[in-house]
């Protein structure tokens, strides 16, 4: 089929937690010989910050890691949807797109029957688009791909769209896989000879003051109390957060691109997942992506409680679940003091991820949804011809080097 995907950014994952999944789905669609075109805005804030924080070298590394993925940049003010969607069978717009574009896509779909239009709702942090936007815009969409059962049930209860499916986060195992101490991929699910130099590696944003209290209970205080060697990676850490890390003896590694995470995780014995306990906007949330990334690399995970963990994993077999800060300390001690137990958890989690939660699994689910909606597959020769003749919108001069 011919897929057209609208992303906030394909190239940048700077403070953009959905980027990994979006890249993996696009890569898997291409590997199954579907036609894929990806649009991202020329002025996207994540790409702008990536250039400032990482420079052009990170963009070159992105292209080296994903040689088949390319963005078509567009100006939100004058994008020609007729040209962009002329040959589309399925159009998917991610939640982080501008509301005006989402509205235009719904209006365009209302005037044509040539493609199916889906909204991918995977809000990892605060809402990019308010709930009111969903009620106004999405009635013209053919359906919603919701990142959790709780989010799916919210849509069904409010009746915003005719069709909604649970379509969870997934991991791209082409990029996220066990890594050796020498810096090359390995296939032994965490049984390498190299001894990690640190106890704990953590990936994530610092967030608000409320978020800081959760991090203190489940991360900072247990690390300080146990005297663990730890390093944090993430974007936008305020001065107060950096002072907190220094006081606890925690190293800060700054922001790193997603495709550098497997190598970084290999430097620690285990990692921790600290989901937000309650979202002020009332939107159900399943914070699974960092757990999936770590387990795909064979790294054991201990997590604070989160909704739908049991729908994805078997607690205390695939991942360890800590009820509070004291329980988190006990779980950390178990992973730190018993290497065999840590390998057991890491290996079980790895097997669960590769058997159930890869981007290949999600693409198979997506294709089944498309067939349910009546989207038809084109002949292979048509796809090959289309792939080389998709409409190319005007490319801003500032991005000609990407």
Task: Quickly describe the structure.
This protein is of the alpha/beta class. The chain is about 40% helix and about 15% strand.
Task: Describe the protein in words.
The structure is a single chain. The chain is α/β, with parallel strands linked by helices and 402 residues long. It folds into two domains: 207 residues, Glycogen Phosphorylase B (Rossmann fold); 159 residues, 3-Layer(aba) Sandwich (Rossmann fold), CATH 3.40.50. Helix content is 41%, strand content 14%. It has 16 helices and 13 strands. The strands form two sheets. The chain has a seven-stranded parallel β-sheet, with helices on both faces. It has a six-stranded parallel β-sheet with strand order 10-9-8-11-12-13, sandwiched between helices. Helix 1 packs across helix 15 and helix 8 crosses helix 13. The longest helix has 18 residues. The two termini are 27 Å apart.
Protein topology:
Blueprint: E1 2-6, H1 19-31, E2 35-41, H2 45-53, H3 56-65, E3 71-74, H4 81-84, E4 90-94, H5 99-110, E5 116-121, H6 131-137, E6 143-146, H7 149-158, E7 164-166, E8 198-203, H8 209-226, E9 230-233, H9 239-247, E10 251-252, H10 261-265, E11 268-273, H11 289-296, E12 301-303, H12 309-312, E13 320-321, H13 325-337, H14 339-356, H15 359-373, H16 380-387
Parallel strand pairs: 1-2, 1-4, 2-3, 4-5, 5-6, 6-7, 8-9, 8-11, 9-10, 11-12, 12-13
């Amino acid at each position: 089929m011919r897929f057209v995907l609208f992303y906030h950014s394909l190239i940048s994952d700077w403070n953009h937690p959905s980027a990994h999944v979006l890249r993996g789905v696009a890569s898997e669609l291409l590997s199954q010989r579907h036609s894929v075109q990806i649009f991202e805005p020329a002025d996207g804030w994540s790409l702008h910050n990536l250039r400032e924080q990482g420079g052009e070298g990170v963009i070159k590394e992105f292209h080296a890691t994903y040689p088949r993925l390319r963005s078509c940049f567009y100006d939100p003010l004058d994008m020609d949807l007729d040209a962009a969607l002329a040959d589309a069978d399925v159009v998917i717009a991610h939640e982080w797109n501008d509301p005006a574009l989402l509205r235009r896509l719904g209006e365009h779909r209302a005037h044509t029957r040539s493609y199916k239009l889906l909204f991918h709702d995977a809000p990892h942090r605060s809402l990019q688009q308010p709930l009111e936007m969903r009620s106004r815009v999405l009635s013209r969409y053919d359906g919603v791909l919701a990142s959790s059962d709780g989010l799916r049930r919210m849509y069904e209860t409010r009746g915003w769209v005719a069709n909604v499916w649970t379509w969870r986060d997934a991991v791209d195992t082409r990029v996220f896989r066990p890594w050796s101490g020498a810096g090359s991929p390995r296939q032994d699910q965490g049984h390498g000879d190299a001894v990690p130099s640190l106890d704990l590696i953590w990936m994530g944003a610092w967030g608000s003051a409320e978020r800081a209290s959760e991090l203190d209970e489940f991360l900072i205080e247990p690390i300080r109390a146990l005297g663990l060697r730890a390093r944090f990676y993430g974007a936008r850490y305020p001065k107060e957060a950096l002072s907190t890390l220094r006081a606890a003896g925690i190293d800060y590694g700054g922001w790193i691109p997603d495709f550098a995470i497997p190598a970084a995780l290999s430097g620690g014995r285990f990692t921790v997942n600290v989901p937000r306990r309650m979202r002020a906007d009332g939107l159900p949330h399943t914070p699974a992506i960092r757990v999936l990334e770590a387990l795909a690399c064979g790294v054991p995970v201990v997590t604070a409680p989160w909704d739908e963990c049991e729908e994805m994993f078997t607690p205390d077999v695939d991942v360890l679940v800590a009820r509070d800060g004291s329980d988190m300390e006990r779980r950390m001690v178990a992973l730190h003091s018993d290497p065999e137990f840590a390998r057991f958890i890491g290996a079980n989690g790895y097997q669960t991820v590769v058997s159930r939660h890869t981007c290949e699994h999600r693409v198979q689910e997506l294709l089944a949804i498309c067939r349910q909606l009546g989207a038809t597959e084109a002949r292979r020769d048509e796809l090959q011809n289309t792939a080389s003749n998709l409409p190319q919108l005007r490319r801003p001069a500032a991005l000609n080097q990407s």
